[in-house]
Amino acid sequence: MHAKTPTAPRPMALAQGPSVLLAMGFIALMFFILGFVTWLNGSLIPFLKLVCRLSNFQALWVTFAFYIAYTVMALPAALLLQRTGYKRGMTLSLGVMAAGAGLFIPAAQSAQYGLFLLALFTLATGMTLMQTAINPYIVCIGPRESAAMRISVMGLFNKGAGIVVPLVFSALILGGIGPYAHTELAQLDPAAQALLRMELASRLIYPYAVMAVALLLFMGIVQLAPVPEPALEPDSTTGRSETGALGVLRFPQAVLGALSLFGYVGVEVIAGDTIGLFGQQLGVPHYAVLTSYTMAFMVLGYLLGVLLIPRVLSQARALAGSAALGLLCVVGVASSSGSATGWSSMLLGWLGVPPVPDAVLCLALLGLANALVWPAIWPLALEGLGRYTAAGSALLIMGIAGGALLPMLYGRLSDSLGGQGAYWMMLPCYALILLYALVGHRLRHWPGQQS
Description:
Blueprint: H1 18-38, H2 41-51, H3 56-59, H4 61-84, H5 86-110, H6 113-140, H7 147-173, H8 182-186, H9 190-201, H10 205-224, H11 252-273, H12 275-281, H13 290-308, H14 315-335, H15 343-351, H16 358-370, H17 373-382, H18 389-398, H19 402-417, H20 427-438
């Protein structure tokens, strides 16, 4: 007699009505948590650059340590979900994230950059497990043709957190930062500089301790909540013999979707996490909150997605339009004026927002171009995967490695070519996304592959 293999809880169809609303409420909470933790990086990068005396390239190791976890841990996360189910996977993810937040305490006490990077990697490991669970969950919770709309609703919570986080970080951490600026520090002896940097680093202890406790609290709430397992669709192809996770590589829509997400996450992270550095280089006094500008445009994009998909725009057309807008914005970022006297000053002045240079506003507008890329790619890439859905989700999550590698390339180029000129590197990424929207998502077989 063979030993029984542990299996995940049996997926069940989600009932209409209260159970769906309850499930979406908890997934919205997850997306908010993801956004809160993720978009801290945009404010954390210039902060750690000052505390740990880093170059632009060194400071962007923050993004590398954070996003490379998605590549390293995506397949283990998918295997874990197969054993535990989606709900229990969400619970475990919050525990791992709490451990990562707790690691910020010794990192801040020692002001050691390596410990900060370890804490970020641990946080992102928990987030990898969460992302692998909640994205297919929200796709499978209702009709496929409206999946991008549902992810857009979730995106409102994710990027709404991205608007709030830089403001909170600036208020709690950066208040009275004047004496810590590079020019002031340069006038002090090495011992005084080290003391001030340690004092600045210690400001991170309380916020991250609170975050760790809050994540543990959410972990308990999710564990006790009556959230059902999602119902997965049947395979679109029955003649494929692979039974392991690598069988998903036979689906072009999934593989090309992962490559598109690689480019997308890279440009999203560049737009959100380097805008503070770019503004700092151009002399923008409120550079620490510029990530909020990018996130505000992303929220606008998500609202448009909720209103237009699928009533007016299909998911594929929304993706193509987003890619085209991204191409235009990149040209604007790399070629616009670096002064705050252009059209952006007039627009933001009319809105009552502190002005920024045209190039900075074009970078923020990439938030609008990026908003619907993630919501559109997920349902297009997972369509027809059936039992490969968890593996397909892991493959797409691995595409988040673009957020680790492409910002590092930007950092290297910005140190040698200048921050503004380095943004040209984003053009091929949006071209790849446009190609997927027009052709790639329709493919169901590789050339020469039997159906």
